[in-house]
Amino acid sequence: PKIVTLPGDGIGPEVTAAAVAVLREVAPDVTIEEHAIGGGAYEAHGEPFPAATRDALKDADAVLLGTVGGAHDSPWNKLPRPLRPESGLLSLRKALGCYANLRPVRVQPGLEHLSPLKPELARGVDILIVRELLGGIYFDGDRKIEGDTAYNTMRYTTPEVERVADMAFWAAEQRKGRVTSVDKANVLEVSELWRRDVQALRDRKYRGVHLNHEYVDSVAMLIVSDPGRYDVIVTENLFGDILSDLAAVIPGSLGLMPSASLGDGPGLFEPIHGSAPDIAGKGIANPAAAIMSVGMLLRHGLSRSDAANAVDRAVALALRAHPTRDLGGTADTQTFTRAVLDAME
Amino acid sequence: PKIVTLPGDGIGPEVTAAAVAVLREVAPDVTIEEHAIGGGAYEAHGEPFPAATRDALKDADAVLLGTVGGAHDSPWNKLPRPLRPESGLLSLRKALGCYANLRPVRVQPGLEHLSPLKPELARGVDILIVRELLGGIYFDGDRKIEGDTAYNTMRYTTPEVERVADMAFWAAEQRKGRVTSVDKANVLEVSELWRRDVQALRDRKYRGVHLNHEYVDSVAMLIVSDPGRYDVIVTENLFGDILSDLAAVIPGSLGLMPSASLGDGPGLFEPIHGSAPDIAGKGIANPAAAIMSVGMLLRHGLSRSDAANAVDRAVALALRAHPTRDLGGTADTQTFTRAVLDAME
Ligand SMILES: CC(C)[C@H](C(=O)O)[C@@H](O)C(=O)O
Ligand SMILES: CC(C)[C@H](C(=O)O)[C@@H](O)C(=O)O
């Protein structure tokens, strides 16, 4: 199988190198092809999602992404919108047809103390957030800024709602069988469509799954005050952006959060943390999320669940034995990666 | 001065009665006129915001609202959108011209243990969220659901951005002088306008205020993992809906959260909690937030800050001496209200 890696900006190259080392160890038969994306790609090729990168995706079996974007005050943020690092990321998602972003939020046993929540609330949290990733207000072409007015359009169609809801129901069947669909149907027509179509799909195809509907403002509260109530959460792109980042703080470190974006073509696997330019190049970044993304790549991208489990187990062991600085330990990137490799043997 | 009260649905009438008792005590000169809103108004008058209510607002100096809406499975939620309780609320906001919703999020000293956050994170939190309340995707007329597609439009104009930002800067000047403006300018044109106009107003008129800009997904994380970093947060309607509810969980009980909506006409003051139909009519609802809303009404609606301070102090004392059930105590609505009245003497 062919894996395309896109290390990207900031700490992306370091954590991707760690992830690739692990990938080579558990799947020695893969071929790996590295390409440019983001701010670095703009510097080198004049665009954040260059043609060579796009072409390389065509026969890829999965894509492993590092991180994209510069510091808060980076000159990249002043470029015309289509040239900014984020646009490279959005184009990549679109090119891959990844309409469902899966984010597992799991508090590792023994690491409850890292959570900003009280330990009794954090303990045992195990949520899967499924975010629609190619529709809604992110991509709709009806958008404008002109003079002193600006607008964007949040649009969905039934097929767009159904395909991501289908993914959520399918995932729920492998888990506790409960889906919470999140919308703002008391205010928005687009949410009314969302709610109707999610319910219809459940009634037609997933009678064994328990479905309920909650408002986005209410979920923002409950995910903090009672996270244990959720199994699978499915929602549209913008709400998903906010809620998945919110939920990501529960385990206590973004350094522990992988993600998978799935759809029509090869899947996209990436840590959810940012490019952390302040610590880039120092060799101290926590590569756990990038390595856990390899776990998701093995499971969802290559259907190798034994290898995926081996990676997950090794990461859990390494986290206990050699925690990185963001977790209150002292391990640097290399030490942690070594510990994962050792634990796999 | 004339105060219009709109007790509304569920526990609204009970907590409003408590609030009115306190208002009469500290401001015996006010006249109070009660009117219908929400589901009850629909039952009685066929619409959630009846003409008589609208007329009564004309010469009001301030409006004290209870709570609006039925249970999750209430038949009210199946009515055509304009007849639902929420529409009454949205029409009320519009009629009053309340473009800025102010939500103080303060952890009361000694009550840190109620927070879902670790006490060391909750301690000393004191944030003011200023939410734009009359624009954006809530009210824009360009919206539709038809067949298998639906959309809503998030639109802002410079004057809409400026008036709410002005309120936020003004509030910051009375506080720690720091404003965080929240948007999604890396993706949305409407956020680009928002960011540009908030910054321009700061540079033109509020040089003494420190302004920074953050993305909504990042704020959703940071408000939980590091709430102490915020002073005033200003944002558009939908982001504000989500973030203000999220922040509201920090003090540990929605029963402690008042709000003020200010604009061109009389201000609107209300507790942020819902109508809690499950406990309505039992006399056990916590009226603290409704009474604290009287505090905000005195301060912002009638410019009587001495009276406002007296109410705030009395509520703080009553909370310690006679906590209600939602706070782990045993006081019912009447006992708590009595305690507030006693503490004011
Ligand atoms: C960088 C940005 C465009 C992106 C998004 O909003 O989708 C990021 O926040 C994410 O969640 O992956
Ligand atoms: C009931 C609903 C329309 C309302 C809103 O979204 O504005 C509520 O959530 C609020 O925040 O007051």
Helices and strands in order, then pairings?
The structure is a homodimer of 345-residue chains.
Chain A: E1 2-8, H1 12-26, E2 31-34, H2 39-45, H3 51-57, E3 62-67, H4 85-96, E4 100-106, H5 119-122, E5 126-132, E6 144-146, E7 149-157, H6 158-173, E8 178-183, H7 189-205, E9 210-215, H8 216-225, E10 232-235, H9 237-248, E11 258-262, E12 267-271, H10 288-301, H11 305-321, H12 333-344
Parallel strand pairs in A: 1-2, 1-3, 3-12, 5-10, 8-9, 8-10
Antiparallel strand pairs in A: 4-5, 4-11, 6-7, 11-12
Helix pairs in contact in A: 1-10, 1-12, 6-7, 8-9, 10-11, 11-12
One 3-isopropylmalic acid sits between chains A (86, 89-90, 241) and B (186-187, 217).
Enzyme class (chains A, B): oxidoreductase
GO molecular function (chains A, B): 3-isopropylmalate dehydrogenase activity; magnesium ion binding; NAD binding
Subcellular location (chains A, B): Cytoplasm
